[in-house]
Amino acid sequence: MQSSVPLSPAAKTGAPARAVPRRRWFRARWLALGVVALLLGLAVWVVARELRTSELQARELARIARQATFAVEDGPSPSIRFPSGGPYDERLGYTQIPDFVARLSAAGFGVERQARHSDRLVSLEEWGINPIYGEKARAGLDIVGRDGRLVFAATYPGHSYASFAEVPPALVQALAFVENREVLDDRYPKRNPAIEWDRLGRAVLGQVLEVAGAETERAGGSTLATQIEKFRHSAGGLTTSPLEKLRQMASASLKAYQDGEETAGARRRIVVDYLNSIPLAAAPPWGEVIGIGDALQIWYGADFDETNAVLMRVDDPRSPVPLETRARVYKQALSLVLSAGRPSYYLIQDPDALTVRTDTYLRLLGEEHVISPELRDAALATDLELRDRANDALGPPPEDRKTASAVRARLVALLGLSDYYALDRLDLGVKSTVIPQVQEDVTRGLRELRDPEVARAAGLYGKRLLDQGDPSKVVYSFSLFERGRTQNELLVQADNLDQPFDVNDGVKLDLGSTAKLRTLATYLEIVAELHQRFAGEHPQTLAAIQTEPRDHITRFVLDELLAHPNLRLAPLLEDALDRKYSANPAEGFFTGGGLHHFANFEKEDDERILTVREAFTRSVNLVFIRLMRDIVNYYTYQAPGSSAAVLRDPKDPRRAEYLRRFADREGRIYLERFWRKYHGQSRAEIVETLLHGVRHTPKRVAMALRAARPDDDFAAFDAALRRALPESKLEPSARQHLYETYSPQRYGLADQGYIAGVHPLELWLVGYLSEQPDASLRAVFEASSEQRISVYQWLFSRHRRAAQDSRIKSLLEIEAFLEVHRNWQQHGYPFESLVPSLATAIGSAADRPAALAELAGIIQNEGVRQPTNRISELRFAADTPYETVLAPLDGDPPRVMPPEVAHALKTAMISVVERGTAVRARGGLVAPDGRVAVVGGKTGTGDHRYKTFGPGGKLLESRVVNRTATFVFLIDDRFYGVITAYVHGPDAAAFAFTSSLPAQLFKTLAPKLSPLLAEPPLDVAHR
Asked: What is the C-alpha to C-alpha distance for residues 939 and 205, in angstroms, rounded to an integer?
């Protein structure tokens, strides 16, 4: 059976079978092509529209910008990122914040608050995109006082536009014409101002053609927005690669949408930011010139406000300003806009090229009808004349800056900066502890004392005051501190010196009898040490202890404990203050390598026998010379490891080996101490530190210099000798004689030390470090084995004892004063060495007022050495993603003095004011409620003279170097401070004032301090 198959229409007609499918295929292909064309056209339309309007990217970039946020929260931030470079970030200190935090942490500060970055912001930063925030056109250092009042402000740039409305339209038009003509085109409100596709395309095409070898004019593709990113955040302010350009564009695009999708406001902000932050070279002494405002002043001497007033109507024929003036101002402003590409070249290297470029653009602006022909022609006829800056100088700081000098100096040191220039440009807000009102009152009061009538009314004239000399030559300084629970704070630091120099911290002064306070503290601490060692021992044990006959302090403590077995420390210290000494000046004292005699200030004291307390109250010199001798003897015979102690048992058969081991060990101890003293210093610094501990006589200084620099020729030696002895009138032949006489080849190491008055091992180490400045302590030990033994060779010899006595005694005194110096350093003594002489007790050792105040703070804080703050908060990069706030941490300050010793010292200081040398200050400070404050203190007079002696010790010349008078004081249980009167140079010879002057000055200033007594204590006020 056959099946039937239907026939197709084509078969019925006899047509070819494949004709219909082919036609369908062609139709489908054309339909597909049409769809593709339609899609491509739509895509082109969309891209073209997007390039014009930026609507899609506006939505997406605005969303990203909203997510890229930061917030400041308590404690250190785990997410914060800091920039790695860029002129803006470096100038404002953002790149250095991690280093600042590390330095401040080492100085006792901690991070209180810090910015946290959102996840989106962190991811953008990892891609190299700069954070999105409102960058500051102006920033700088701000310091406010404890009461919140502004103390100091440095804002850079100094002149800027606060808003778009303040910018003259003519300047906007000129900038847009030169740099970015579409920047203010508002036809498309969401358009991205960071990218102009036509300019970018021409720039890319030009780069391609240049690579291909074709000659073409290079076109810039940067908008104002990307240029801002470049000179703010790119390394060196340069675009170093295509990737860097992409980062600039991406960052600028995101910032354009940080306020939303519409960018009209962003465009105007970009114009203002560009004018405010464009770098325009650098000009001494101003430094880097940032922004049009400062550039007008620095490069053309133009006033910013006057220039803007002219520019506002620069092309208005009705302007009252003459056309020539308007044309000159316009040409200057235009030239600065045009110099932006190569500012150093145009403004410094070739100003004529800037004139040519400016004239070219003036013609173009006229052709494009941006400016009128009249303004163009007048400007072309005007010469561009940069201001002559040959005599530029910043001048002395104004008085308000002097108020903040202590804080700024501290900041430079804390942050490791080189100078105030770098500090003042940081984006940094500082809360200081200074009280501005009191500071200003005290400063004004000190300055008014230059007037003789004011000084007379203040009671500063009379015997031992300003009875002679010009009062305007006297420099007064005043510091006041308040104690806290774990920290002290500086409240006032003022002086009447119209210079940035700080008398309190920056000068080495002879502060006279204030050294008696340091000496008394050392004495009482020795008594406390002995009490701790012997208290509680059985009386028979105490009675069996043998003491060196010259060790009077140890004998005194033992006798007191034998007489009163349960004697506590406080009454023992009172008894120690009641020990008696002769004030007779007839005795000669072998000290400092020679025989010396000393005198009392008051002749009626010469025949008296006084207690230590009375001598301190009346400031009697000879009592303290003898007290220091007892201190030296204690350290010589009782201190652990004392050289003298090894000589006590001459019959011990093991004595020689023991002495050898002792000499080696003792030498290591001193070498380690000296190595720590000098390690890390330059060769010049090492010699300067060495000479600080040398009595400044030609012989001693010459020996020290020759030992420290044995290879120096005479010229180098002569220069160093004259620097060390600036007042010396030695003839060249005498200096040549010193050079030859004290050649180290002529003396052994022990004799070199004896002549210089310095420990021989210190001299050896200084010479060694001059050749091996980076030597480790181990290397020092290995190189000094022979010297360690030779220095103590006198311990082994049984002959020539008489000849050795003077050398032995000098060495023992040097070693004892090393212990005294260690004790003084614990109390804040600022220098690396002491001159080993009993005269140190009465002021031959220099001091600093600030260091003396620190000792008063230790006493006020019952023996605890608390840090002294001038700064209570540092706020870096406020309102930025880098914001970091630090404040002093509550630490655990060390106890450096028993509280009983501090109390005894305070009682002694009160007696100085009640009935001693500071009696003028008694009752002078009265609280607002009528209560009379308890004041204690110590006075000192320094008469620093350079003396020249002839044969036989005859005094040939005595020349005054400076005169000082000091009063270090305590107020109640809260405050402490120091007042210093100081005259430097030849003018000092005309004055005869004593420490009565600062005591009277304290009484004069007391009413200005009185309101502080009614304020709540520091810990109550701040915690």
From this structure: 82
